[in-house]
Amino acid sequence: MQHFLSIADFSADELWQFLRQAKDLKEEFKSGGNQPILRGKTLGMIFQKSSLRTRVSFEVGMLHLGGHALYISPNEIGLGKRESVADVARVLSGYVDGIMARVFSHDHILQLAQYSSVPVINGLSDYNHPCQALADVFTIWEHFGEVKGLKLAYVGDGNNVVTSLMTIAAKLGMDFSVATPIGYEPAAEVVSMANKFAQETNTNIKITVTNDPIEAVGGADIVYADVWTSMGQESETEKRLKVFPPYQINENLMAQAKAQAVVMHCLPAHRAEEITDAVADGTQSIIFQQAENRLHAQKALLATLLGGR
Ligand code: CP
Ligand code: NVA
Fold it and tell me: Beta strand 262-265 with 222-225: parallel, antiparallel or unpaired?
């Protein structure tokens, strides 16, 4: 049985299969609707954190494919508190055909997958956000008509979104640079894993970790932002607001990227913090196309994992 827990678990060919399938499903949807390939199937969606995009795009995606999704809110099942993660996985997988989970600890995703008898999809953990990265690359491919050879620059916190973006860049052949304040760099294991993948796939790309946003953004095709304080880190908000302002994506910073560069943000955005309105709503922004594409990319995951396509 196949789960979708990390970009690292998939080869470039497998990732491209998802991307091509997302393109087909998007085209099919836009020209009248999707075939009900998941008729009678149910996705159980466990949320330990808030969500707009992940929750709605999975639920609507299941509906479009003829299936059904069940939203389980943060306080309902008490994952790992009211009962063990293993027991939740064993019980829930007796009712549903797939489990999507958004959790704090990545270990909970791994445990769900270990004890579930149905596919598990990671809808974000403190470690990574693979559904986001898949939809992001789909958006990049749509916009540029290619992926290989582009440079993606991420500016901000070296967080869960960075783990998945760096990994997918390494697998699919994009240069990846990340600029963070000192002490907020991505984990060294993530960087060395990405470098290993780049070597294995012979993509010959460059991964740069720096504290200088201008260096990171220089020559970039895509400039990418995320919040400075992720869900679960709220107690650090004040401390972070002191060190992150030089890492704001604004018009001055965008001027360092290629003239044709686009700006992306996984959203939700804290406007006037990590990104200005002028950039988020400007002509270079593709953030709402990016948000919409969560729907189409995840349909590809659902079709493969739950529908055997
Ligand atoms: N980008 C993203 O995952 O958004 P939500 O937190 O709203 O699901
Ligand atoms: N890094 C953010 C992403 C939200 C989609 C968080 O974890 O809160």
Answer: parallel
CATH code of the domain covering residue 64: 3.40.50.1370
Q: Which residues are catalytic?
A: 102, 129, 132, 226, 266, 294
pLDDT band at residue 201 under the 50/70/90 scheme: confident
Q: For the chain, what is the domain count?
A: 2
Inter-residue contact 297 to 22 (CB < 8 Å): yes
Q: Say if 2 falls within a structural domain.
A: no
Query: To test the ligand 1 pocket, which listed residue (71, 102, 229, 266) has its Cβ within 8 A of the most ligand atoms?
Result: 266
Ligand 2 close to Cβ of residue 231 (< 6 A) = yes
| 205, part of any domain | yes
Ligand 1 close to Cβ of residue 229 (< 6 A)? no
Quick: pLDDT tens for 110-140. Answer: 999 999 999 999 999 999 999 999 999 999 9
Could you tell me the two tokens for 232? 């679960």
Over its C-alpha atoms, the chain yields an Rg (Å, rounded) of 19
